[in-house]
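Please decode residue identities from the backbone states below.
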């Protein structure tokens, strides 16, 4: 299980905060579980640990970062927690499904599971200047 241990606010979209991952921790959820192929398990863990989760990974508790602004404004596809997401854009979707399952529309069934996006977030003020008229 990957836990977000530190975050920072990077943007505010329509009252929804977007966060940047600043720190993560990996915790085994079944430390006594016997792994069938230990070599393959170690190879996959080594590959995963090479990913720097503090570089360009973002999330929001209330805003769907995987959809367009238009879809988010109409709330099409939102689950019972108000947060639906497009699985192909959620970086950690394939890690969440085995642990939490998914509903019929492909949304992970847990308020604890947060889709993480890899990309870039930048926000600029859109207020008009005083000499624009």
């Amino acid at each position: 299980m990957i836990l977000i241990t530190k975050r920072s606010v990077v943007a505010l979209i329509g009252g929804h905060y977007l966060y940047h991952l600043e720190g993560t921790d990996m915790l085994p959820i079944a430390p006594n579980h016997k792994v069938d192929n230990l070599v393959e398990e170690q190879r996959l863990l080594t590959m995963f640990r090479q990913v720097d989760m503090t570089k360009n990974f973002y999330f929001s508790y209330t805003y769907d970062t995987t959809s367009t602004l238009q879809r988010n404004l109409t709330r099409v596809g939102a689950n019972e927690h108000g947060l639906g997401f497009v699985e192909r854009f959620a970086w950690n979707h394939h890690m969440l499904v085995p642990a939490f399952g998914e509903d019929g529309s492909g949304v992970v069934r847990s308020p604890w599971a947060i889709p993480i996006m890899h990309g870039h977030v930048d926000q600029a003020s859109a207020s008009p200047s005083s000499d624009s008229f």
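Observation: The beta strands are 2-13, 16-26, 57-59, 117-118.
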